[in-house]
Write a structure and sequence with these properties.
Length: 599
């Protein structure tokens, strides 16, 4: 456990560590104030038990003589002073706990922001091979568990242990025997308890993490594939598995909580037994003189009142941390990776300018294999895309068209070979400029839960959206009729996945999104597949309007789409099998002819 806490500390930013050390100062001050409060009770109770002590030498006796007050009045003033000391101690404690809680919560929030930033700056392959619901689980649940059940309890445990240490030291000065026996007794009992449950807690923590991952997976799959689920009547399969995972989750959380809380009652028993034993012992030692043992008993009682909950709190915190370490283990590798990440890695697109092809874009002998696959998706693929021309990419399913497009867009890096824009190799240095010049319309358009306007200017906050550009892009994508039918026009909200819109309407929003940034290179992946014949023709006409002005690359299954292309590449097994105009290929290539016949 100490190792993990150390690792967590190492993962904090220098600023967070500095604040933690400053807070440690506050913790020591709080402990000191609490001890001072307890210790001040002793002399007061001694005077109440035996006012004759006022005539003795010592500081209090001198103060009494200087004050010139009656003994009762002096005792009252002394009582008020003790209350003032206790009040000050309480205020310091309140302030410290306040700061500790805020600090813990803030560190947790910063860790989850850091993870989110880390995931958001990962390349396409990372996301293509992973699960977004698991990333959500990490950023929200596991981070929250790390915050609420590791960082915050650790801060509390630290505060309470320092306080218990100070209190034990004060008690030691007051009565070494009682202090040593008391501290040994409670430390020993708690230690035994902790050793008994710690393995169970760790296992439990892993069980909670596992159940949580399952719940997020089911949530993602259930909502993500809701149409199929409804149609196939598979709801029960999802909800039953969710019930089971929730049951395991609840069981795990409940057991961890119980294991950290339940010992309290056993400890109270031990404490009461110890008090009874102490009272009997002191009565016997002082021949039943209550006046003599009252001050000592008051101090022990108050010290016990502070120390017992401190021990309990320290134990609860330790058990909670142990029970949730699995959450930290789950996010640790990504947190570590995020620390080394260059904050400036994600560049501001606006400040980078554009890399506009004037002559040609080339894919030169590109080889690419997906991780975990034995076959290469692209095998020395070479393509030339003349600037301001329209080219089509066709081929059987799995022939590598989408992969070639991802390479062209700079979303994945070739293993061998390169992408060149006007002979200039695409590298990390000019990638942003290149991507600023490209507009991409994917096969399935992701619509965010916002207005059509926000969806066209994807990711831009409302105030930064250029209305004129939105209108122009919407018009070019033939959205005017749809917008005319909607009472709120561009302000109409669409669902997360645009369920209120037809496939064709969604695709037109995707096309408008690519046109919003006035891209010089348009890449369309089956962009018109969901459109009806008339709309498709309208859009294709709009796209062909850009002929000679923009470079257009389109993947198409329906060969009619690429009829008017200046050049068509036929792909087979990761490379170009043939190239030419549509008519040339129909005349020359039997495979292409067959594909054309099946349209
Ligand atoms: N994220 C991925 N991880 C692993 N393999 C992948 C991934 N994406 C594609 N592939 C594999 O790479 C090969 C080429 O796929 P690609 O999607 O580029 O073909 P495509 O021609 O675009 O097919 P389609 O017309 O069906 O979209 C296929 O064998 C496919 O299984």
């Amino acid at each position: 456990m100490l190792r993990q806490l150390r690792e967590l500390y190492d993962l904090l930013s220098p600023r967070q560590r500095a604040t933690l050390l400053r807070l440690q100062g506050l913790v020591v001050l709080m402990a000191f104030a609490e001890v001072a409060g307890v210790v001040s009770i002793g002399p007061f109770m001694a005077l109440v038990g035996d006012p004759g002590r006022l005539d003795a030498d010592g500081v209090i006796g001198q103060l009494y003589r200087v004050s010139g007050l009656e003994p009762r009045a002096f005792l009252s003033v002394l009582g008020v002073v003790v209350i003032a000391v206790l009040t000050l101690a309480a205020l310091v404690s309140m302030f410290t706990i306040w700061r500790l809680s805020l600090y813990g919560a803030r560190v947790g929030a910063e860790l989850s922001s850091r993870l989110y930033r880390h995931y958001m700056s990962q390349p396409w392959l990372f996301h293509a091979g992973g699960s977004s619901s698991q990333l959500t689980n990490m950023v929200t649940q596991e981070c929250q568990r790390t915050t609420n059940n590791i960082i915050v309890p650790f801060m509390r445990m630290n505060a309470k242990l320092v306080m218990a240490l100070f209190m034990a030291m004060a008690l030691f000065i007051y009565n070494p025997t009682v202090a040593v026996y008391g501290v040994l007794l409670f430390t020993f009992v708690y230690f035994i308890l902790y050793r008994a449950v710690r393995h169970g807690l760790s296992r439990n923590g892993e069980r909670v993490s596992h159940a949580q991952r399952m719940r997020f997976k089911l949530l993602g799959e259930g909502f993500g594939g809701i149409k199929d689920t409804l149609l196939l009547g598979r709801q029960r399969l999802f909800t039953d598995r969710f019930d089971q995972a929730s049951e395991r989750f609840a069981q795990g959380i409940g057991i961890t909580q119980a294991m950290s809380q339940v010992p309290r009652y056993a400890m109270e028993l031990v404490a009461f037994a110890a008090v009874i034993f102490l009272v009997l012992y002191m009565l016997a030692a002082h021949d039943g003189d209550l006046g003599a043992i009252l001050p000592a008993l008051s101090v022990y009682a108050l010290a016990g009142l502070k120390m017992l909950p401190a021990f309990q709190q320290a134990y609860t915190s330790m058990a909670t941390i142990r029970g949730h370490l699995a959450a930290f283990e789950a996010i640790r590798p990504d947190l570590e990776a995020s620390r080394d990440q260059d904050e400036a890695g994600v560049r501001d697109p606006e400040s980078e300018g554009h890399l506009v092809p004037a002559d040609r874009i080339e894919l030169a002998e590109v080889v690419f294999r997906y991780p975990g696959k034995s076959e290469s998706a692209l095998r020395e693929l070479s393509l030339v895309i003349p600037a301001n021309r329209t080219i089509g990419l066709v081929g059987a399913s799995g022939s590598g068209k989408s992969t070639a497009i991802d390479i062209l867009l700079g979303l994945i890096e070739p293993e061998q070979g390169e992408v060149r824009v006007d002979g200039q190799r695409l590298t990390a240095d000019n990638l942003r400029q290149w991507q600023n010049s490209v507009g991409f319309v994917p096969q399935s358009i992701f619509l965010s839960d916002g207005s059509i306007r926000e969806n066209i200017a994807f990711g831009l906050p409302e105030p930064l959206i250029d209305e004129a550009k939105v209108r122009r892009a919407a018009s070019m994508a033939h959205l005017d009729d749809l917008l005319g039918d909607l009472s709120d026009g561009l302000a109409t909200r669409v669902g997360e996945r645009g369920v209120q819109l037809s496939g064709g309407q969604r695709q037109r929003i995707g096309i408008a999104r690519a046109l919003y940034h006035d891209a010089d290179v348009l890449v369309l992946d089956e962009a018109t597949s969901a459109l009806d014949g008339i709309t498709e023709k309208l859009i294709m006409d709009a796209i062909y309007d850009f002929s000679g002005k923009k470079t257009i690359v389109m993947i198409a299954h329906r060969l009619a789409t690429v009829k008017a292309c200046d050049k068509v590449y036929l792909m087979e097994e990761g490379k170009v099998a043939d190239t030419g105009t549509y008519d040339e290929l129909v005349a020359r290539n039997p495979v292409f002819r067959k594909m054309a016949e099946h349209v």
